[in-house]
Amino acid sequence: MPQLEVAEGADTACELVGIGVGAHIAHRVPVRLLKRMVSALCMTIGLFIAWRALS
Asked: What's the first-to-final CA gap in the chain, in angstroms?
C-alpha cells in the first residue's frame, strides 16, 4: 500500500483537531449513544485489522 506524503506538522494538527472533536462529541452525546458509537468503532477497527492480517 503506498504511503501518503504529508506536510510536516500537518499530522499533528489533524490529531489535535481530532482530540477536540472527540471531546466535544463525548460531552454532548448521551452516554448510551456514546457507548454504541465506541462499540461500533472498536468492531470496525477490529475487522479492519483482521482483514489486513488475512490479506
From this structure: 12
CA distances from 10 to 5, 33, 43 (A): 10, 31, 28
* Whether the model pTM is above 0.90: no
For the chain, the domains span 30-55
pLDDT tens track for 21-41: 989 988 999 999 999 999 999
d(C-alpha 50, C-alpha 45), whole Å: 9
Helix residue ranges per DSSP H, the chain: 10-28, 31-54
